[in-house]
Design a protein that fits this description.
Blueprint: E1 5-9, E2 18-22, E3 28-30, H1 34-37, E4 44-45, E5 49-51, H2 68-72, H3 76-88, H4 91-94, H5 108-125, H6 131-154, H7 160-184, H8 189-213, H9 228-235, H10 237-259, H11 274-280, H12 282-318
Antiparallel strand pairs: 1-2, 1-5, 2-3, 4-5
Helix pairs in contact: 5-6, 5-7, 7-8, 7-10, 8-12, 10-11, 10-12
Length: 319
Amino acid sequence: MKDIAIVYEPSSGGRRGRASRRRDDGRVGECGRGAFLHSRAPIVATPRRVAMAPVKTRARAPRKTRSSSARAKEPRATQKATHKASKTMTPSRRRGFFTRHEGIFVYVPNLIGYARIAATMYAFSVAFTSPRTCLLAYFAAFCCDELDGRFARRFNQCSEFGRALDMVTDRLATCALLMILAIEYPKQYMSCVSLMSLDVASHWARVYAGALVGADGHKALDDESSFWLLRLYYRNRIFMGACCVSVEVLYLCLHAKAADPTFTGFAALGPLDVDVLRVAALPGFFVKQLANIAQLIGACRTLARVDIVEITAEDFDDE
């Protein structure tokens, strides 16, 4: 870890000032907003300097290239074949379907995501006419949600489109379940609206804050200043998965009891009937709501620090 000082250069010649970062080895480079935001220390402003806490820097691996002498030692036929292949073959032809290629929309995890959307839409279309079919279709959608991430890491097909598709599908599915519950439980209408608003607002604010500071997705926007529960939630995949599953299980159990009071559960689950699952899902449900509140507050604080940095820069410009 190196000490990096954020230096603000006042404007000159009608141009706006520029922020840069000076390392302990004397080199200076431009800095982004993220250098200001991932520290618990307050911003200390002086006429020429805004000092920040140490920031982790990532060393870039040296680029491997072949020297001209190494290429000259290759046989003439090999050089011609390599040159011809580089001119005639495109990257998409050199890469297989189960590897990282330019066809982002037909990545295997994205195809699974499309199947998940179809299963979710079908589940909601039969929610009031066939509750059991709705539960089975939603379970199939849940399996797709579990598989898409595994296949993305297995085939190295992680993409920004896939992340957005997965998160948007999660939010819309949760909102649709709450809308169904609001119809079935009119007295709990405002509770459903509040849960829906908290879920959407917390995730949207976190994604927006992550985009401003250059975080690698909303799950990567966590530092040591975050609430301990939020750090545990995003760093432990098993814990996060248990909380998310608990929320959906609770909503589905409430829907099943309202749509068909005689339905107690599937025989394959044995003693885990609807009532038992509903009670077992309550702890995870409350933890998930606390995590939503924590990430909403944390995202708002990050956005406020962005504004503080811009105000500080404007003050130096005025001077």
